[in-house]
Amino acid sequence: MKFARTLAATLAFGVPAAAVFLISCSTSRPIVAPLEIPGAHFVGNRVCSQCHTQITRAFESSPHAHLVIEDAKPPGGAGCESCHGPGSKHVESGGNAGFIINPRKEPEACFRCHLQARAEFHLPAHHPVIEGRMNCAQCHNPHGGDILKPADGGLAMARLNETCLQCHREQTHPFVFEHPALREGCTTCHNPHGSVNRMMLTQPDNNLCFRCHMQAQGPGVPPGEIFIGNAPHADFLKMGTCWSAGCHTAVHGSDIDPRLRY
Asked: Which of 32, 160, 175, 211 is most buried, most CB within 10 Å of its CB?
């Protein structure tokens, strides 16, 4: 009887505990294998700095500088070679680009660590990185202190918008009547890597606008009515989204109408 009670207690508490342990193991951070270049070995950051002085000077403050390759511990660390592969043949050849991995041309060098970004680039609406028409370095500075371009701009949303401005000039140029959401940054409404929604929107419907513009109903407001500003909107919202119902079509800003219409 005592053995039976012990066995029952073990099954009751031990099995769930084991399951939690297995789950915790299965959700740990992925193990990233070092990049390989046939016949090459790791040389360390100090060797890279002898030629790439300007890059390595700023690189010390970059999060990427702290990457560690457990299987290769050359003097000076291996931050550069974590993304570019072992550099001995590159050095021996006098800097031949054919003996180094270029993440601009091979986004998988970035995706090995940035697994979520890899998944987002395979969503229906995405920037064409996996198609080879864009690369990660167009929006990110992999050697800079904050990874976001421009390197000297910190994380200010105005600077973040400037990154998008490089391609999306029509949407981000100064407007007479600016949509205040632009001050919060383009990523307030768009997922820059990819989304299941058109135009890479974070929400496909009016809930995107309601995060800022929805107002609680107060005393005297008819049931079912929705006020945005001082105007009732329930009937308008039945016509479609805020930007597709012929109302606020100039969602980024307008030069003629403070209500963001063309």
From this structure: 160
Its pTM surpasses 0.90: no
Residue 182 belongs to what H/E stretch? helix 181-184
Half-sphere exposure at residue 152, Cβ-oriented, CA atoms within 13 angstroms: 0
In angstroms, the CA 73 to CA 174 distance is 50
119-131 pLDDT per residue, tens: 999 999 999 999 9
Domain endpoint, select from 101, 121, 146: 101
What are the CA-CA distances from residue 218 to residues 130, 173, 224, 227, 230 (Å)?
49, 38, 12, 10, 12
- CA dist 119 and 117 (Å) reads 5
* Residue 162, domain member (yes or no): no
Does residue 194 lie in a domain region?
A: yes
Q: How many domains does the chain have?
A: 2
Which residues form the domain of 204? 174-254
- Say how far apart CA 70 and CA 215 lie, in whole Å: 54
Neighbouring C-alpha atoms within 13 Å toward the C-beta of 93: 12
Give 203 or 141, the one with higher predicted confidence. Answer: 203
Sequence-distant (6+) residues with CB within 8 A of 71 are 33, 34
Grouping H, G, I as helix, E, B as strand and the rest as coil, residue 186 is helix
Cβ pair 219, 212 in contact under 8 A: no
Handedness of CA 81, 82, 84, 85 (dihedral sign): positive
In degrees and rounded to multiples of 5, residue 139 shows phi and psi of: -110, -20
Query: For the chain, give me the number of helices (H) and strands (E)?
Result: 13, 6
Q: How far apart are CA 200 and CA 196, in angstroms?
A: 7
